[in-house]
Design a protein that fits this description.
Layout lengths: L1 H14 L1 H9 L4 H41 L1
Helix pairs in contact: 1-3
Length: 71
């Protein structure tokens, strides 16, 4: 979990170096750039966590239906 998110953040920063440079040239503070990257990672983490949770519940419900149906 945490290692994967760290790797995603590293890749995000490396791929967006040009964009970050342009934002800095237009007057963005380093804290604004950092906050944007952190906000994006939090949104991605929460979204994927919720999707995984919902998928897990649906999968368990389907498995329970099949188990009850066989009895």
């Amino acid at each position: 979990g945490v290692i994967a998110i760290s790797n995603i953040l590293l890749i995000t920063v490396k791929e967006r170096t040009k964009e970050i440079g342009i934002r800095r040239a237009l007057g963005a503070k380093p804290s604004e750039v950092r906050n944007q990257i952190l906000l994006e990672s939090v949104v991605i983490t929460i979204t994927s966590g919720l999707l995984g949770f919902i998928f897990g519940i649906l999968l368990l419900m389907k498995m329970e239906e099949r188990r009850v149906g066989k009895e």
